[in-house]
Amino acid sequence: MSKLVTIFGGSGFVGRYIARRMAKEGWRVRVAVRRPNEALFVRPYGVVGQVEPIFCNIRDDASVAAATQGADAVVNCVGTFDAGGKNNFDAVQNEGAERIARIAAENGITHMVHISAIGADADAPSAYAKSKAAGEAAILSHMPSAVILRPSVIFGGEDQFFNRFASMSRLGPILPVVGADTKFQPVYVDDVAAAAVKGVLGQVEPGIYELGGPEVSTFRDLMKQMLQVINRRRLIANIPFFAAKAMAFGFDMLSAVTLGLISNGVLTRDQVKQLGSDNVVADDAKGFADLGITPTAIGVVIPEYLYRFRPSGQYDAIKASAKNLKA
């Protein structure tokens, strides 16, 4: 019988790519999510019955134990940007990660891959980064053989980075950003998935790997590159950090006074703190080279999914060509 991997958050942005690759490797894939009915799209990644979504709540021991039963390896892709509520930073990225590692170890599972983030640091100003660091430490206390991947900002067809700002660019002549000079090293989602698969298959040494693409760019330059792809001219306006903090405070308070009925999906105070630090691979960190993977450049991928934000969408190139026709 083929081996089984349980992927927590396997229908999410990164998880679905890992699930697809694991299915191609011939493994049975158990996609553990909170809403299995919304994850049915993963089934065609393999033959009938090879990829199955199941219910799991990583805040519950029994639920995680059921999801890991019989598995040969586990992958944790669950993360959150929600600082409040039951599924907050600590509950998901610290306690949830610890629970998966502990129960996996109790069940004799020796291979675990965990998706963390560059910037994970117990002394970071951001609560998000602190919870990521706490989760890593908790995992290693139970599963010292784990492979921990720390990607920079991830891009791909379903991303919430380029897609979000490309959508914003349609609203007016100004594109506001916070931390325009902050540096990022965007990494392609399928490259992260390839790294995770190597970890599951035991093809790499245990440890922490920081994953960044071949280009290091400022936030402003990334927006310029995106605008060029979608054929739009916009003024990139950098919002000073003092103003961003005030705005984020207002959005956070609005969410608080409405008891979460109006969620802050615009800008949080914790996100402002994160944007104050560069998000790039450290000079002494292990990375793609140690994994035997050549990362994909941004320009190779983003035209494939950002075309819909062009003024004429998929017909933009045709209209441009038609202008050159002589009567």
SSE inventory with pairings:
Blueprint: E1 4-8, H1 15-24, E2 28-33, E3 51-55, H2 61-68, E4 73-76, H3 89-106, E5 111-115, H4 127-142, E6 147-151, E7 154-155, H5 162-168, E8 174-178, E9 183-184, E10 187-188, H6 189-200, E11 207-211, E12 217-218, H7 219-229, E13 235-239, H8 241-257, H9 269-274, H10 288-291, H11 298-301, H12 303-306, H13 316-322
Parallel strand pairs: 1-2, 1-4, 2-3, 4-5, 5-6, 6-11, 7-10, 8-13
Antiparallel strand pairs: 9-12
Helix pairs in contact: 1-6, 2-3, 3-4
Query: Taking Cα atoms only, what radius of gyration do you get, to the nearest Å?
Result: 21 Å
Label the structural class.
alpha/beta
- Class of the domain at 4-158 and 185-215 and 278-295 in CATH? Alpha Beta
CATH fold-type name of the domain at 4-158 and 185-215 and 278-295: Rossmann fold
Distance between the termini: 67 Å
Task: Supply database-style keywords.
single chain; 327 residues; alpha/beta; Rossmann fold; seven-stranded parallel β-sheet; two-stranded parallel ribbon; 13 strands
